[in-house]
Structures
1.
Amino acid sequence: MADTSDSGFYITAGIGTGLEHDIDGSIEGNDFSATGRTTFSGGIGFGYELDSNVRVEAGVSRSTGDVDSITIDGIKYDVDESGNNTNFSVAVAYDFENDSRITPFISGSYGIRWSEDADESSNLFGIDVGVSTPVSDDLELWGAIGMGITQDETHDIDGDSIKTDGTTAWGFSTGLRIRL
């Protein structure tokens, strides 16, 4: 949506998945390392494109993550656990205007995540690099590679104090922007 003559409101919808990553931490003082990934994420949002190729968005998404293994005290256990999260995020993006039908963009985001099993929310930060291309006058297809960043956190989950170290996770997403 880098055409500055078409600034205005839009809605967006997208889906994505994540790459496998490790999460380190402790449960009641016992160190652990878990391996998992976001298997599916989907969301909707509302945005506004400014005349300066800057976009501002807010969105809600729902994601499912799977944990494949956990290592405690050097012993690896294969597990098959999954959990769901609801996320609210705000983002700022910049479209690199050019003479091509493909417009590169970069965005940064801040989000709040609520996990089904946790009593507290957690903070998320994200950086995306992607491209978009028009499908019609009011419809645009986009795709991105993103990195999610979390900070060190402590949560009470089912009565246990669980501490996790900050981590980064990579993922892919795609979706549509519909100009209003």
2.
Amino acid sequence: MRTIAAGKSGGQPDAQLLAGLACVLDLLSAVFSDPRTEVGARATDALRSMEGVGVEAGSLLAPLGRLAVPVVPDQDVQFARLLLHGGQPVAHPFESFYRSGRLCDPQCLAEFEELYTQLGVLPEASGLAADHLSVELDFLALLLRGAAESGDAGRVLVAVALILVEDHLAPFVGAFAARLES
């Protein structure tokens, strides 16, 4: 587990960009926790929040637009089949499964508890483990939103966000996506 330290080099990312990314992450977090999430209006809001920050909206519009329309008529059933228990799911939405082969591995969960403790964050009682994809995306959104609202003091939150992405989300999401595609 890396230690959190304020970054000294590089400038602070644009606050509007950080806030816009947080909106997109909130949306993705909701989708991965509940397939019945109303996506259409939220996707539009997320895209609107990113206008004028140098992000190509078209690169986000198509994927977010696809989320707005159910892919299959029995989307809830397919969500459960692919991601939840009830037989052997195709892809577990828990990081610990891809790191150790165990769901809710204590070492993986302890790393998140340490991050939360260092930041003084009290996770919501969502009923989901700290290593669930939805929870990790929600945490990243919280960090980016906090950085956007904190000005120069947000550098610590950006540093934590980078740790979360590099050490957790990037390897986890890569393995998770590969499993879904196979």
